[in-house]
Write a structure and sequence with these properties.
globular; Rossmann fold; eight-stranded mixed β-sheet; alpha/beta; 339 residues; single chain
Length: 339
């Protein structure tokens, strides 16, 4: 209730004209030699970086004309940048072919987000960059904030991003499955192929496993088909191992176990809105609430399965559900605008 009152008092930026919907893309190098991709929906307001989750890509925020957080924010004046982390989306390949897997989740925050924010600040002249992360993308934002500080960050919104782990969490099963199908023995798990198969099989997928990722009540059939075919990207072996280590230790920690990121967030003075759901079968709502509660600065948590939403939100639904533009997007817009 307090969150809704705060958001209700904020006067949103005026909508940007349709000309700001145009998107451009570029690739750039990180400090450790990897390649990332940036996609830009230019608008006159403050820049915001959107970062996807595990086994995903920038199309999570830019699926089509109706399911598009990026263009929605741009039309409201936010200068939107979307990141494809190394090995994902348009950054699967580097200058010399496919990027060699061997990075951890730390590297996404240490190098990929850092390179993206440096580029955005250079192009726009902005002092600070707002941040929206889905699932692992929110964790990567936390890693960046802890390792690089918050001087170049504005406000942050995380969607289904955990800051606490338990071996009994549904995420543990996702990680174990990823390791079983190749994460422990192969450099890549070709999850795009699994996404296409799931789209072709639709309801015939055993146990409807793909529906663990979303609540079917939130979608038209065509959206589910486009989602399964478009947003999946490969999983890297060490990435999965890092998740496995965090689940084993029940801690949001660095690969070398030297940093407990959840504890370190307590010294971060950054306005953070965390959105979770009791219908999220990948990341429990309590784990997302832990993200907000860990932050030392202003923070809030919204449960997208209580009042204010027609159907409870699954893990992919925060940006892709049919009602997300009316139920979730305005909260993101208002929170970013408060700074």
């Amino acid at each position: 209730m307090v969150l809704m009152l705060l958001l209700g008092c904020w006067d949103p930026m005026p909508a940007a004209p349709d000309s700001y919907f145009t998107s451009t893309s570029s690739r750039l190098k990180t400090a450790d030699g990897a390649t990332i991709a940036l996609h830009h929906h230019p608008a006159p307001g403050p820049p915001v970086l959107l970062v996807h989750g595990i086994s995903s890509n920038h199309h999570y925020f830019d699926l089509d004309g109706s399911h598009n957080l990026a263009s929605w924010l741009a039309r409201r004046g936010h200068d939107v940048w979307m990141l494809d982390l190394r090995g994902h989306g348009d950054a699967v390949y580097g200058d010399h072919g496919r990027q060699i897997a061997g990075w951890t989740i730390d590297d996404y925050g240490l190098y990929d987000v850092d390179a993206a924010i440096q580029q955005i600040r250079s192009v726009t002249g902005a002092e600070r960059v707002d941040y929206v992360g889905h699932s692992m993308g929110g964790m990567v934002g936390a890693i960046y904030a802890v390792r690089h500080g918050v001087d170049r960050l504005g406000a942050m919104v995380v969607l289904g991003s955990p800051a606490s782990f338990s071996r009994s969490d549904p995420l543990a099963g996702v990680v174990e499955l990823g390791m079983a199908v190749g994460g422990a023995s192969l450099l890549w798990v070709e999850s795009p192929a699994f996404g296409a198969i799931a789209a072709d099989l639709k309801g015939a997928v055993p146990l409807h496993l793909q529906e663990k990722l979303y609540n079917p009540a939130n979608y038209e059939p065509a959206t589910i088909d486009a989602m399964l075919r478009t947003i999946a990207s490969p999983l890297a072996r060490k990435e999965m191992q890092h998740f496995g280590r965090m689940l084993k230790d029940e801690a949001f920690e660095s690969w070398d176990r030297a940093i407990d990121y959840r504890t370190a967030l307590g010294s971060i003075d950054l306005p953070v809105l965390a959105i979770g759901s009791s219908h999220d079968e990948v990341v429990p709502a309590a784990s997302v609430r832990a993200f907000a509660d860990a932050v030392g600065g202003k923070h809030a948590f919204f449960l997208a399965s209580d009042g204010g939403v027609e159907h409870g939100y699954g893990h992919l639904d925060y940006a892709l559900a049919e009602n997300a533009p009316t139920e979730i997007f305005p909260m993101i817009d208002r929170w970013l605008g408060e700074r």
